[in-house]
Amino acid sequence: MKTFVLINCIFIFLFLFFPSLSSATPEFARVTGLNCGECHIDPNGGGGLTEKGKKYLYKPLTTAQKIVRLFVGYFHMMAAIAWFGAIIYVHLLLKPAYASKGLPRGELLLGGISMIIVLITGVLLTIARMPALKIFYTTRFGILLSIKIVLFSLMFLSVIIVITFIGPRMRKKKTADAKEKSGAYTPEDLAMFDGRDGRPAYISYKGVIYDVSANRFWKDGQHMRKHVSGQDMTDLLKTAPHGEEKVLALPVVGELSSTIIKPPVPFHEQLFYFFAYMNLAMTFVIVFIIALWRWW
To answer: Can you give the residue range of the structural domain that contains 220?
Structure first.
């Protein structure tokens, strides 16, 4: 979580202390491919506007409207930072394999709220910044915005699919596998017993599998908020403040097998990994688009 906070601080620092300069009128003419005379009565630019030029002219905003747009943009930016930070934290540090077991509620809540805020504020800002549909495909700003909207829509759609289709099937499969398993366990089998969604919580120590589901120190499959069940604790116990007697007193449910047999990955799980890496890639693309807006 400290890394996630650090990432957000870096984004905030860049946006606050490295603001972009406004583009001059010749820059607008260059990116649209139009001559100054297309929008200005004077062919050299400046002064009055033609009818075509007036279509690109933003309506003057009152002070109250400027304040509202400022705060809408602020919340949009902060929500995007939180959302992208959560994606980078989960997929680069926790890894998708860990996320497939079920993300912590904090990360899920942060990501969901951030996406909704980005959606609402993004729609409001787009309406305020785009006076005509033609700007979406005739200006560099509009084209980049269109690409960003498409990428965001794909990311939002993938989240809906994961929540409604993939997630329930992955939880159901893991719960069913956990109930059927007994005897010898591979490390991958052990990982299913994480104490979540009604599954038992198991740990291994020196090749033996122990059930910690009923232990008050392993509530929800977590021990002192530092260790999670479904793992081998042989090496970790060396740094624990207590001895192995605490573990040896637990109920034994089986043995840890060194033979690792990887079952075929079902389609919905393959789709989960595809969406995970797709969202990570799109995050970097959207940030690159923002960089093009501000510094190129």
So the answer is: 187-256
